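Attaching the record inline, Q. Sequence:
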Amino acid sequence: MGGRAGAAGRPRGTGPPARVHRRRGRAGPGRALLERGRPDAALAAVERGLAVADDPELRLRRAAVHLERAVGDLGAIVPAAKPRTGPEDDRRPDPATSGAAVELLAGLLALLGDPEAAEHVWRAGLDDRDTAEEVRRRLGRGFASAPEADAAPPWWEPYLEEAAATSSTCVLAGELFAVVTRMHALLAVPVVEGEARPSVLRAVMEQALRTPSETVWGADVHADFRRRLHEAMGEDPLPEGWPEHGPPGSR
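Structure, as predicted:
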């Protein structure tokens, strides 16, 4: 991973400021200044405008200035994913502070329409040995926990973590819903038609089982079932490449 938050605290890839209020319409006080990276001057211009009249667009612009300043402050805290090399590293914030800064900065950048920079911030936090545990806890704050405290994380957790870090949770959810819908349709048709032939029903079930295989996470669904079946039976009864290549007993 290349690049990191610079002296001004802006992570690589964030681009020019003023993203939150870019839209058609009059320029108004402060807009050009904010787009040129001068948030303090932009705030002063906006405040002068608000002193004349209470304008919702100026209030939005003032909020944008505060967000840009927050990005700079948080970017100065976020670890740069590099090893400690000198006594100045003793001034680094504690993991809780760094973790909170990573979460807030990544969230702000995603909100401001810069998912690439948000991902970079998460990666920097996860790559820093001192903050990785706290950052991972915050990244997975909304994930369902494993059934038992000492149980291994579920197979899907890395995919959720990746989706959260890359602001692609909605894409992953859409893919999951599409797979569930396809499997439901495959299984529902023979039920509705009253199909009773075992060979047809088995073929439909095998087709439904193979539905996730085309996704990035499909192989892990099959591997997880295989692992749990092996643990329950004490042996692996499935052929290599199942369910793509043959039913159980076809080895």
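Residues 1-10, 12-26 have pLDDT under 50 and may be disordered. Residues 169-193 form the longest helix (25 residues).

More tomorrow.
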